[in-house]
Write a structure and sequence with these properties.
The chain contains ten helices and no strands. It is mainly alpha-helical and about 180 residues long. It folds into two domains: about 130 residues, RNA polymerase sigma factor, region 2, helix turn helix motif (Rna Polymerase Sigma Factor, Chain: A), CATH 1.10.1740; about 50 residues, Winged helix-like DNA-binding domain superfamily/Winged helix DNA-binding domain (Arc Repressor Mutant, subunit A, Orthogonal Bundle).
């Protein structure tokens, strides 16, 4: 059953890159809620989160050909695309002068995900099936580990940035992550 759902999502994406507007609507219906939730955790602003979500689906429409169908991992690609776009938005809102100009080249290098073929492909339903295990694992982390992961994932900070911000050695940051 999982393969059928995965293939269905992949088929929808193939239709999107063939400029099928109905397919983009189907993809939006499938993924908008989970992507919005992720985006809002990063951006933490309703209007900004809605704008980023719209930007994500515009990127899917314009640059869907960047998706590597050999990975079969549309779920991971969309989540990473939303994450990258949200972190970029947050950074541009807080310190726009620290980032290069936003361009197609920038987008291709920093926003559009490049997935490893070694990552196991998931569809939306299978990702939800491991949600509880993931949350349980996160709940077992120390407060310091959670904070460092929050800085890395939701704030988009590098390990070096985190070490400097917290005034702790880089190996300590790496061990927490």
């Amino acid at each position: 059953m999982e393969d059928i759902k995965l293939n269905s999502e992949i088929q929808i994406m193939k239709r999107v890159i063939e400029s099928d507007e109905k397919a983009l609507e189907e993809l939006y219906d499938l993924y908008s809620q989970i992507l919005y939730t992720l985006i809002n955790k990063v951006v933490n602003n309703k209007d900004g989160s809605e704008e980023v979500l719209a930007d994500v689906f515009l990127l899917v429409w314009k640059k869907g050909k960047s998706f590597d169908f050999t990975t079969q991992n549309l779920y991971a690609w969309l989540v990473l695309l939303a994450h990258n776009k949200a972190v970029d938005r947050k950074k541009r809102d807080s310190s726009p002068d620290d980032l290069p100009e936003y361009s197609d080249e920038y987008e291709d290098k920093f926003i559009i995900p490049k997935l490893s073929k070694s990552i196991e492909a998931q569809d939306l339903e299978s990702a939800f099936s491991v949600k509880d295990k993931f949350e349980n694992a996160l709940n077992k982390l120390t407060g310091a580990q959670k904070y460092v992961i929050n800085l890395a994932y939701y704030e988009g900070k590098t390990q070096n940035d985190i070490a400097n911000q917290l005034n702790i050695p880089l190996p300590t940051v790496k061990s927490k992550i």
